[in-house]
Design brief:
30% helix; alpha+beta; two-stranded antiparallel sheet
Length: 54
């Protein structure tokens, strides 16, 4: 199974090299699969990070 991943910072798409793609994909999939009650099959996973303002 191939996995598509896209990184956007301030709305701008940032290119990821193969090593970084693999790290992100494995990290997110591993963390999500460790959670209970995740709908199966997983079709999409969306993760949004927004830094807190100090």
């Amino acid at each position: 199974m191939s996995t598509k991943i896209e990184l956007k910072v301030n709305g701008r798409v940032i290119a990821l090299n193969p090593f970084v793609k693999k790290i992100f994909i494995n990290l997110v999939l591993g963390a999500v699969q460790a959670l209970d009650k995740i709908p199966q099959p997983m079709e999409t996973i969306e993760l949004r990070l927004q830094p807190e303002k100090e």
